[in-house]
Amino acid sequence: MDQVTVNFQDAQQAFLLLKSMDKDKIAGFLEEMAGQIDGIREELIPTAARESHLPEGRITGELGRTLGQIRLFSQVVAEGSWVEATIDKADPERKPAPKPDIRRMLRPLGPVVVFGASNFPLAFSTAGGDTVSALAAGCPVLYKAHPAHPETSRMVAEAIKNAVRTSGLPKGTFQHIEGGIETGQLLVTHPLAKAVAFTGSFRGGKALFDACNAREQPIPVFAEMGSVNPIFVFESYLSEQVEATAAAYAGSLTLGVGQFCTNPGLIFIPKSTEQAFSKAVVSQLKQSAAAPMLHEGICHNYYQALETLSHAREIEWLLASEPGELLTGNAALAKVSASDWLQEDAFQEEVFGPFGIMVVYESEADLIALAQQLKGQLTCTVWGMPNELERSGAFLNLLEEKCGRLLFKGVPTGVEVGHAMQHGGPFPSTTDSRSTSVGVHAIKRFVRPVAYQDMPQALLPKALQEANPLGIRRKVDGEWM
Amino acid sequence: MDQVTVNFQDAQQAFLLLKSMDKDKIAGFLEEMAGQIDGIREELIPTAARESHLPEGRITGELGRTLGQIRLFSQVVAEGSWVEATIDKADPERKPAPKPDIRRMLRPLGPVVVFGASNFPLAFSTAGGDTVSALAAGCPVLYKAHPAHPETSRMVAEAIKNAVRTSGLPKGTFQHIEGGIETGQLLVTHPLAKAVAFTGSFRGGKALFDACNAREQPIPVFAEMGSVNPIFVFESYLSEQVEATAAAYAGSLTLGVGQFCTNPGLIFIPKSTEQAFSKAVVSQLKQSAAAPMLHEGICHNYYQALETLSHAREIEWLLASEPGELLTGNAALAKVSASDWLQEDAFQEEVFGPFGIMVVYESEADLIALAQQLKGQLTCTVWGMPNELERSGAFLNLLEEKCGRLLFKGVPTGVEVGHAMQHGGPFPSTTDSRSTSVGVHAIKRFVRPVAYQDMPQALLPKALQEANPLGIRRKVDGEWM
Asked: Which residue of B has its CA nearest to A214?
C-alpha cells in the first residue's frame, strides 16, 4: 500500500507538468520510446516468444504493430488538432447582456492505470495502445504488468523509462508495477487515479468497473472484455463457395490459437448447406497445426469450458478436442440449432481458444430473432450476395446495435490501426461502447473538455491563443479554420 | 410496470426508424417542435410562472433560450458534419495483407430516459437541452416529468407530440411520463433504455448512476448534480474594487433566488480586505428583493440546511436568514477561516438557495491547499489583477482539475449556449466530466462510433457513401475534406 501511495504522488507531479508541456516534447518522447524499444528487439523478440509461447514470426509482427502505434500517436500529438480547440469570441455589444469569450479544448484526465493483456505481450501490454494513447493525451501511466510475461514487460518498461529520462520528462510519467489482483484493486481505488484501461476477461474487467463505480469519486473504466464475434452467412453466398468460406472461417477461428479478442467463436449458417459446410470446416480444422496456448491457466480454462459444454444435450460435436501435450490448444467445433441457441445464454459465452459453435438456422426470417438475442460484440460479420444483403435491411439495422464494427468481407481478426477503426462495442464486449481501444480515437478516452471564459491570452494554453501559435485546425464561432 | 414495458417497445420501434432517417427530416421536426412550443407561449408563460413561482419575465427569457437551443440543434443536424464521418480507404495492394475499406461515424445509442429539473421548467425540462440533444442524435426520448410543474410539462409535451405527428415521425419518438421515484427507477432499469440524462440533486443523480451501473447491461448516466462554483479573489484586485466586487458576487449568489446550478455558494477572499468586503456584500444582500423559491420542498430544505450549519462553531454569521412568508428565500451569508474550511467537508456542500460561505485566507500561499481540497465543480472563477494571475500558475493548474469551466471575468451564472461551452465538471458536480449538458457538444452524449468494414456502397449510411451525397466535412485517409 505504501509503495502504491508513493507512486501516485510521483504520477500526480508528472501530470501537473505534462499537461502544460509543449506538444513537440511529448511527440518527441513517443518517437524516442519507439526507438528505445526498437533498439532492444534482438533480445525482446525471443523473450516475448518464450514467455508467451507465441512463434517469433508472430512476435516480430506484433512488435512492428506496437512501434507503428507509438509513431502514429507521436504524429497525432505533433499535428495537434486532436484537442478540438473551439473558440466562441466575445461580443461586448450583445443585448441584453455582453457575450463573453469562451475557449474550449480537450485536456488530460490525470494518472491512468493500465492493465496489460496476456495475448498481446507487446501491442496490448506495457507499451501497447492503452499506455501510448494515455501518454499521448498527457496522462501519466501506472502500468500493472501481466504476470504471464514478466521479463518482456520489464524490458519494455526499462526502454520506456530510458525514453522518459532521455526526453527530460518527469520520472512519474511511467511506472511499472508488478503484483496480483490486490495490487490492481489498490491502484484503481487510489484517489489520484483518474481512469483505467484494461484488456482481458469479463470477470476481470467487470470487477474493475464495479470497484471504480463504488469509489467516492467514480472514474471511467475502459475495459475490453472479449467477444464471440459472430459471422452470419446467407444461403446463396454459402452454397456458391463452401470450401472458400470454410477455409476463411477456420483460419480466423484458429488464428493465434483462438486467443484474439476478435476470433469468430460463433457462425450462423443456413440449414440447406449445413452438411457440406460442416465437413469442409472440420477438414480445415484438422489440417490446422495445433500450437501451444499462452499459459497454463488459459489452457486449463479452455478445456474446462469445453468439458462444461459437453454436458449440453443440445450440442452435437463435429470436432471434439482433448488436451494434448503441454499447452497445446486443439481446435473444436460444435453444432446447435438456432431454436436451441436462442434458449441458452451459455451458447454465446466466449470460450477463449480455438473453439467455434455453428448455429444452424432454417430460413432468413430467423435472422431477426437471432440478432435480437445476441449480446454486445466487438464485431459482427455478414457474408451474403448483394441481393441477399439488400433485402435484409431490418436484420442489418438490428445487428448494428450489437457491435462496434460491422464487416461484410474478410474476417474479424486483424484490427487495422487507423482513423476509422472502432474497437469497442456494446456491453459486455466493453464497458463503454462510446470508446475505442484501437486507432487514433483511443486518445479520446483519457481527456475531458475544459472551457476557459475570458482568460487572459498569456495564461491560455497555446492551442487556444488568439494567434494560433500551434497552427492547428480550430473551430471559431462555429466555423472550422 | 406494464405501461413502462409498452412505452419502451414504441420507443425501440421509433429508434430503428429514426436512426436511418433523413437528416433533413429530423432537422425539420426540431424546427417544427420550436414552432409548436412558440405557438403556445401565451398560455405557457403564465402557467410556468405560476407553477415555478418564477417571474414571467424570467420565464419569457427562458422560453427564448429553450427555442434557441432547439433551433441550434436543428442547424447542427441539418449541417450534418457532427457525425464525424471518417473514411480509411482500401488498399488491395498492401503487403503483407490487403487493407480493407473502413468507414466510421457516430450513431445514436437508443431510447434515452430524461429527467427534468425544477429550476428550469422549460430550458432543462420537457423540451430542454437533454431532450433536444437526444432527439437530434436520433434517440427517442422517454421524458419523466418533474412533479413541480406538471401542467407546464404536459403543455410542452403536447406541443412536441404535435410536432412528431406533423413531421411524420413515429409516435414512440417522444413520450411523456408522470410518476414518482419508483417510476424513474423502472424507466432507467428497463433493458431497452440505453442512456439517462438528469439535472437535479446529488442524491437523485447518484441513485440513478448506481442503479444504471448495477444493470445487467450498464448504461451511461449523464447526471448534472450541482456545484458550489467557488470564486477566488486576489488581494490587489479586491482592495481596488470592493464595492463592485461585492455587487457582482451578491448579484450572482441571489440570481434566481440562488436556485441555479452555477450560483457561487463559496467565495475565497484575502484577510486584509475582509471587513470592507463583508460589509459591502451584506449591504448588497439586504437590498436584494426576497422572492419565492420554486416549491415547498426546496424552501424547507434550504432553511433546514442553514439550521444544520448554524450549529457549526467555526462559522460566523454575517447575515442570518429566517423563513419568511410563504416560499420566500432570504439570502444568508456565513464566514469561516481557511484553516477551518479545510477541516470540514460540510462547508463545501451545496445549499440550494441564496446562501454563501465566505472563506477568509491569510495569504496567496494558502490558495494551493484550498484548491487541492476542493471537490469537483461545474465552474471555478478567479478574479485577480494580471500580475496576480501571472504568478499563480501552480494554483491555476490545480484549479483547472476541479472544474469544467474556468472564468476570469464576470460571474458563473449565465451559461452561454454555443460551440465552446462546457457545462459538466469532475464528480460530484456531474457523473461524467467528459460530457456537457449545454452547447452543441451535448449531442455527443447519446452516440457511439460504429465502423463499417467493406460495406457495399448501397447499404452504407449516406454520411459515409463515396460520393458524399450529404456534402458534409469528412476525414478521408487522415485528411479533412
From this structure: B210
CB nearest to B450's CB, from A213, A422, A455:
A422
Q: How many CA atoms lie within 13 A of B292 on its CB side?
A: 14
Instruction: Please judge whether A406 and B452 are an interchain contact, meaning their C-beta atoms are less than 8 angstroms apart.
Output: yes
Q: pLDDT, tens digit, for every residue of B400-449?
A: 999 999 999 999 999 999 999 999 999 999 999 999 999 999 999 999 99
Segments forming the whole domain that contains residue A345: 231-407
Q: Which residues of A are catalytic?
A: 224, 261
Contact flag A448-B99 (C-beta cutoff 8 Å): no
Collapse the DSSP code of A327 into the 3-class scheme (helix H, G, I; strand E, B; otherwise coil) and give the result. Answer: coil
Q: Which of B139, B212, B261, B403 is catalytic?
A: B261
Sorting pLDDT into bands at 50, 70 and 90, what band is B1?
Answer: very low
State the greatest distance between any 2 C-alpha atoms of chain A, in Å, as a whole number: 81
Helices marked H in A41-178: 41-52, 56-79, 129-137, 150-166
Q: Which three cell numbers stand for residue A449?
A: 473538455
Interchain pair A449, B441: CB under 8 A:
yes
| Chain center to CA of B459 | 37
Residues B394 and B463 in one domain: no
Query: Are residues B212 and B151 part of one domain?
Result: yes
Nearest residue of B to residue A75, measured between CA atoms: B478
Mutation target to probe the A interface, by most A beta carbons within 10 A, among B375, B383, B387, B422 is B422
Among A266, A334, A259, smallest CA distance to A292 is for: A259
Query: What is the C-alpha separation between B443 and B3, in angstroms, rounded?
Result: 28
At B127, is the secondary structure helix, strand, or coil?
coil
The CATH code of the domain that includes B472 is 3.40.605.10
Q: Quick one: closest CA in A to B436, which residue?
A: A449
CB A85 within 8 A of CB A105: yes
Residue A5: per-residue pLDDT? 58
Name the amino acid, one letter, at B90.
A
Q: What is the pLDDT of residue B5?
A: 58
Average pLDDT estimate for A176-194: 95
Let me know whether B261 and B188 are in one domain: no
Q: What is the pLDDT of residue B135?
A: 98
Question: Looking at the partner chain, which of A110, A210, A454 has a beta carbon nearest the beta carbon of B410?
Answer: A454
How far apart CA A167 and CA B248 sit, in angstroms, is: 47
Chain B: residue nearest A375 by CA?
B217
Domain shared by A341 and A208, yes or no: no
Domain membership flag for residue B176: yes
Size of interface A-B (CB pairs under 8 A): 194
The pLDDT tens digits of the residues spanning B215-265 come to 999 999 999 998 999 999 999 999 999 999 999 999 999 999 999 999 999
Q: Which residues of B touch A409 (CB under 8 A)?
A: 100, 453-454
Report whether A135 contacts A204 (CB < 8 A): no
> Which among A217, A401, A416 is the nearest to B99, CB-wise?
A416
**Residue B54 reports pLDDT greater than 90:** yes
B463 phi, psi to nearest 5 deg: -60, -20
Helix boundaries (H) for A119-149:
129-137
Task: Find, among B315, B313, B255, the residue nearest to B284 by Cα.
Answer: B255
Among B51, B224, B235, B350, the active-site one is B224
Same structural domain for residues A123 and A245?
no
A-chain residues near B460 (CB < 8 A): none
Query: Residue A77: what residue type?
Result: V
- Give the distance between the most distant pair of CA atoms in chain B: 81
pLDDT tens column, A202-215 = 999 999 999 999 99
Could A100 and B409 be called an inter-chain contact, meaning their C-beta atoms sit closer than 8 Å?
Answer: yes
Specify if B335 maps to a domain. Answer: yes
Q: Measure the CA–CA gap between B84 and B104, rounded to whole angstroms.
A: 8
Q: What is the DSSP code (8-state) at residue B290?
A: P
Q: Are A459 and B407 in contact (CB < 8 Å)?
A: no
Of A403, A427, A449, the CB nearest to B436: A449
